[in-house]
Amino acid sequence: MCGIIGYIGEKNASPILIQGLRKLEYRGYDSAGVAIQDGDTIARVRSVGKIENLAARAATEKLPGTVGIAHTRWATHGGVTEENAHPHTDQSESLVLVHNGIVENYREIKEQLGSEHIYNSETDSEILAHLIGEHIKESDGKLTEESFRLAVECALKEVRGTYGLVVMHKDVPDYLIVARMGSPLVIGVGTDGYYIASDATPMLAYTKKVIFLEDGEIACVSKTDMQTFNLKDECVVKCVEEIEWNQEQAEKQGYEDFMLKEIHDQPTVFEDAIRGRFNVEEGTAHLGGLNMTEEEMHSVKRIVLIACGTASYASMVGKYAFERLAGIPTEVDVASEFRYRDPIIDKHTLVFGVSQSGETADTLAALREAKRKGAFVRGIVNVVGSTIARETDGGTYIHAGPELAVASTKAYTNMVAILLLYALQFGRLKRVALATGERMLHALLEIPQKMNEILDTAEQIKTIAKVYANYDHMFFIGRGINYPVALEGSIKLKEISYIHSEAYPGGELKHGPMALLSEDFPVFGIMTKDQLYDKMRSNIEEVRARKAPVILIASQGDDTAKELGEHVMYTPKTMELLQPLLNTVILQLFSYYVAKELGRDVDRPRNLAKSVTVE
Ligand code: F6R
Questions:
Q1: Which residues contact 84 (CB under 8 A, 6 or more apart)?
Q2: In the annotation, is 573 catalytic?
Q3: Single pTM value for the model
Q4: 333-364, pLDDT tens digit by residue?
Q5: Quick check: bond before 87 cis, omega within 30?
Q6: Whether residue 2 lies in the annotated active site
Q7: Does residue 255 fall inside a structural domain?
Q8: Which of 55, 60, 33 is nearest to 44 (CA)?
Q9: Residues 96 and 218 in one domain
């Protein structure tokens, strides 16, 4: 996601900031920009695409000055354009800021600021700059460090959403205001000045002494000093910490691998996926990217979800949700099959292409085919500006942030989140009652906290995973909404541990696969309390009768599960349709620890690529 770097000190800022942006590249971005203060002038350069484009332009413009801020942007509000790239200015162009996060109430703020405000971008961040500028206008007399800080504080009190923010002003030279709410910021304490960044990676070359800003804190940084306040304007004493990480460890934020980091990212990025996309009072979702009128939505008689691999298992959860909530027949088509099947598609079909990369060749080709046949074609994609995002007539970004490990984890959960929101949006138009919609939204809001509960049990999952690392085969079984969960558990295990695994609906084992079961063939059952719980129990009993070791995921409080499984991992309860969001996190951790036990390279498993751009 977006990255911030700022510098204030004795050295020339421009090379430090450009180099800092390069170090932040791993977070993913689509444009970048830099602003340098020199006395009472601020020069700003922005550019779409690679940091090298920006570096070339910054070199041409020279950009003298020892104070500056810079940013890599990953588009959320508004397309990938130079105008939308940070830094942004206020109406007077005296204030310049970089911002990570999302201002949820940006529309209200824009309305409140009135029509005299002219914006140059489509971003919520520019509106925030204007809001701070407006508060500065209200403060009497010459702008001082104190009145500048108070203006920023006042503006931030009006903001709903998240921010990691660095602001500077022409009239207050050599002074940066840094604020955090939900979007991390670190301040590096160097011998020549201060470094500010969204993570420690860009400052490691200069200092290992850092101060971590907490939510609701505002730091005022000069060349030689910094002071921190809270939003009540009280002074806060901060500790300087020494970090031990090297560059690579810093990118992984202390986790051993990107996969583990991305598994742990899930509570946060899940919030990013759903934020601002629903209305609890109306009990519905508002995914504007759908680009369909209510009449067009009513005309949809069939939904087809096209995807590959993990994205197709996320789509299967979507199928259950669309059918249950909206009563619309829904199919999941594996893209590589769909494109050659001459599928029956017409103008009453809504096709979603579901893809993390947005570049998967089969998914892309299938979507083109669906478009040719006259369907509504929309994307559910992670990578902004990717080919699928550009070629579909609308859709929704899942906001999972860059996923660097080959095995998909956080993109899966965010795909499921968006599919659930779409199903609710269609469902409310058709047959879902307000109370049910409200209940589902409340349940979605509780998911991050429940994911954290699971992440807290990682050590227990690790202990169990070690027991199963030396088997050659494994089955995953589930029923109903837990069948796609079994499929996802199975693909995760095989791709990173190289243990052979298959997934089946629980009722299917006795139709053939059961012949393989023995003491050497464990079965992983997903047996949470849902409509098919009793059926699933019977299937597990059948497995036990064949002496296969049983591992279970069971709902918290289901003590009887211990009678059935050698090992049981407990999951928090939620609405049945949302249960895959939690159960899958356990399976991700299980596969991860099995693979680690076997010494596999979990981030780069053999024979696989992150983005499959060939057929
Ligand atoms: C499995 C995995 C793959 C991808 C598949 C589709 O962990 O990552 O199965 O899900 O290759 O990729 P995208 O989502 O980029 O279209």
A1: 31, 73, 75, 77, 78, 121, 122, 123
A2: no
A3: 0.77
A4: 999 999 888 899 999 999 999 999 898 989 99
A5: yes
A6: yes
A7: no
A8: 33
A9: yes
